[in-house]
Design a protein that fits this description.
Oligomer: heterodimer
Helix content of chain B: 10-25%
CATH superfamily of one domain in chain A: CO dehydrogenase flavoprotein, C-terminal domain
Strand order of the largest sheet of chain B: 3-5-1-12-9-10-11
Helix content of chain A: 25-40%
Strand content of chain B: 25-35%
CATH architecture of the largest domain in chain B: 2-Layer Sandwich
Structural class of chain B: alpha+beta
Number of helices of chain B: 16
Distance between the termini of chain A: 45 Å
Strand order of the largest sheet of chain A: 4-5-10-6-7
Structural class of chain A: alpha+beta
Number of domains of chain B: 3
CATH architecture of one domain in chain A: 2-Layer Sandwich
Order of helices and strands of chain A: EHEHEEEHHHHHEEEEEEEEHHHH
CATH class of the largest domain in chain B: Alpha Beta
Distance between the termini of chain B: 33 Å
Number of strands of chain A: 13
CATH topology of one domain in chain A: Enolase-like, domain 1
Shape of chain A: globular
Chain lengths: 291, 764
Amino acid sequence: MEFLAPADLGDAVAAKAAHPDAVPIMGGTDVMVELNFDRRRPELLLDLGRVPELREWDRDGDRIRLGAAVSYSRVIAELSGVLPGLAMASRTVGSPQIRNRGSIGGNLGAASPAGDAHPALLAAAAEVELTSVRGVRRVPIDDFFLGVKRHAGAPDELITAVWIGAATGPQQFSKVGTRNAMVIAVCSFGLALHPGSAQVRTGIGSAAPTPRRAAAAETFVNAALQDGNLWHSRDVLAESLLTEFARRVTAAAAPIDDVRGTADYRRRALGVLARRCLQWAWTDYRSGSVG
Amino acid sequence: MTGPAITEQVGTGTARGVGSSPARPDGVLKVTGQFAYGSDLWMDGMLWGVTLRSPHPHAVIGSIDISAALATPGVHAVLTHADVPGRNLVGLEHADQPVLAESVVRYQGEPVALVAADHPEIARRAAGRIVVDYQVLSPVSDPRTALDAAPLHPGGNLVRRVKIRKGDPAPVADVVVRGEYRVGMQDQAFLGPESGLAIPDGEGGVDLHVATQWLHVDQQQVCTALGLTPDRVRLTLAGVGGAFGGREDLSMHVHGCLLALHTGKPIKMVYSREESFFGHVHRHPAWLQYEYGADSSGALVYARGEICLDGGAYASSTGAVVANAATMGLGPYDIPNVHVDCYGVYTTNPPCGAMRGFGAVQAAFAYEAMMDKLADALQMDPVALRIRNAMSEGSRVPTGQLVDSAAPVAELIGRVRDLPQPPAPPTAGPVDLRQLPGGVGNTTHGEGVRRGVGYAVAYKNVAFSEGFDDHSTARVRLEVAGGTPIVTVHTAAAEVGQGLVTVQQQICRTELGVDTVLVHPADTTVGSAGSTSASRQTYVTGGAVQHVCALVRARVLELTAALPDLPGTPVGLRDGAVVDADGAALIDLAELLGDQAVERTDEWRHRRTYPIDPETGQGDAHVQYSFSAHRAVVDVDVELGLVKVIELACAQDVGRAMNPDAVLGQIQGGSTQGMGLALMEEIQVVDGKIVNPSFTDYLIPTILDTPPMPIQVLENPDPHAPFGLRGVGEAPTVSSGPAVLAAIRAACGHDLTRVPVRPQDIIG
């Protein structure tokens, strides 16, 4: 196994072009586990840990450009005001050591259905920045996840950043695990209110082959909020609205039975999370709070 | 962790003696990461050994082709069963397990071949080139039907059946409750994986440094397998990173020695975390059917239990676990009429054996659930029902044995009941996710959360039972160095983290009045200390050290006979001097001993036990009981099935708190391990295969899952035991889990019958 350690982004992109099979490694919280368990023996590891450009984040107007190597710890410490959903998801990741090492870009690169950042990124309508020697492009998060641990990046592309709008309304993230910390999601749910566009967006984790939005639930709740003039009135949400929203989130999932939980439990739990997240976010919205 | 302080009882001989909590000799090294565990051993020129394991739970081996592996550059040896020079069968109670599989494999992970190479990666790759022709057979995976399956071993699939019969065989009661329970397979989940270093001596013998629980039983088995006498196979304890029963059986011992003798070079073997799940026995999964009857006043009339334990592929200690589950199977209650059947079987599941609590743990989930059911049926308070039926000194247990020392069952359960309740969950103010079910997962801000309180009381036998010659050996040497008296204590007892090294020092200080006590490394150059298990080492090796210290002290007092001008009559040792009855110093040890050393070695035994009758289970089988009670307070999200244990209070009688800090540590650790089984710890086995062999999916409690533990320690001395002590380590593991289950039942209202409880069980 060879180990490439480019010192800047240009070298990193060139290396990926020259070695499209190289496995990028950032914090190593996924890749090293696979290596240590002998599940994977790539010919080449491409270490992005020394690429300074990836470690930065900037604000460009209403949008945050989050370098792929920014750790969960830094998202929590530096960005919980503008990216509250992603910060909440980051708090549920592993242990302090894992949050220090693991990065949002690494989470996207692994593209696990259980990746903790993904529901929050779906709910926030993020875009994934992919860079190659051919240029830079942004892929909407909705189009990024293609299958179990497969994403839209081409073999010569690196995930270099995530673009996320600064929150304009409350966001929530919930994750069920069978212990109270340091656990892989049995199922998870992200939700963001976008009052400017009068939209609610969602993200479901660990309950389908890929992270996915609950499109029918969004359509339903967006129409109900619109029809009831609720964005303006900020009235309480009817029980029937919460119930139907939760039902539709449940219906959007396609979970399996596995070692962490049953499909039936995942569906039922997702319904509970959906109702609670919407209720919490709406309560915050009614009180005028953003985060 | 909070709790009332234990009264500090300073030893009679010197400060830092029995009853105090001096710092552990290995404590600083461990917390600073400098302690050398077995996996840290290193020798120049050593090779790495790896084990090829069967991927199938049940298969016939047609052939094994090692040629490609052997041809791999860097490989020094590839060995199979044909290379085992002695008897290719080992085992704790029955020698039924091949060192390396011959014609059949009986569990996934069974060792088939060994490789030694310059580098562990080369060894692993070479192992991957060994071609084993397996004819896969159907697994025998359900222990409840295993007795009807084709025999996996020559004697059939029953390892042991124990019957307990007492009183009326057809009793009648006013109120009858029944239940069926299932307890999953728990792993010891020690943090230091199996490891050791085998060093050939160049003369056909071998020195093995290994992390283990019982050096001498290892030595016997290694000798049998290698065909060597004990003087040729010398064992030294390597640093042990936790054990909990999982190191009673052999792991790399014979394998490392085989490779070392074959290559003539030192062999290091360290299991990976994943391999470790296949490299040691686990807690027996159990299926339990119970029926309890009481009169209308709440007095127990009878109890019936049938317990099936899955022993897995090899016997290990299944026989003793069966006896424990049977004899401890009904809880610390006075029950006039008893009918228990308990049996353990062979399957092709992972082998099961010793784990903290040893059969008593599984049964307690059933009998404490029965007591709650009975209380409910009688409309009685569950604690009042337990007190009404509590065993006490003078009771006779279901085996007919007299309880001949303190058995404060009623007091223990009453004490945890009477502790102040933790504060109710806040209904206003900012949410602290860490205090809520689901924790930092942010799954509730109070929605769906209900509080439940549950109680359990349990008991556990201490030391080895049923007539086993359970002894320990100590060597104690007193000498003067640089003008200071120094004691060296040498036993073969395995320090596995519990703190025996500290207790040995404390006993020497108390008995010999000397502050500087060195603990010699544990090895087989001194006689057996028995196993570090069954809560027995402080009792048995502690007893041996006390006994041999008394021999040394007697000799020192004899020496004073040559000094007729002493200002008083010498009766004891204190603070480095011979003292009279008033404690006045008569002569310093330094002056008395000069350059002569006093050394004594002897064995010590606890009082005899006896086998139980095969038809009735009657007999004085046990040495001593350890009692503990728990009150669990939980908050349960009844919509998501998630649990936050708010508080886990414990009361335990320890007879004598030899080292109060270590006692609290044992109670905290034992309580947490029992809680882990109740809530999350399970090796999931499907058709004989482990599906979660990693700490990603085998979950153990984190600090956020571990609640405050108010602890009350009682010290009712057992007159039969050294210092009056009782073994501490296991009882809290037995009672904590059932209390947590009871609390969750109280919160969610469901009759939870499966352990560990799963979220889907709680939401019903």
